[in-house]
Amino acid sequence: MRNLIYLREQLEIKNISKRLQHLVLEKEKPFFEVWMADLNDEIQDLAQSFGERFMLQAAFYAYDTCFHAGAKELLYKNLRMHMVAHLRDNMSFYLVNDLISKEAAKGLVNSFD
Length: 113
Fold this sequence. Notes:
Layout (H helix, E strand, L loop, with lengths): L1 H25 L4 H8 L1 H25 L4 H21 L1 H6 L5 H9 L3
Helix pairs in contact: 1-3, 3-4
């Protein structure tokens, strides 16, 4: 699950780079106009995926450096629940980009219910 969440940021960067190259270099549109108008939604998606990856990395660092068994178990359960919730909330992204199968998506939808 962690790798899927990390992968989203990389795919968002790739998507913005392709569109930016196409619109600015090939169609010769002004960079500012493309950045502010044409790629606005993509930039918001990238910012959200960056924040999610950044937070998750910090949470896993806390988990990895935790030495109290009870606290570590609680951290693990919370991290797992958070990742499942994130994947469920962003299921369309993962399905459209063929990152998970329909069967895996159904399993996530039914988890924690």
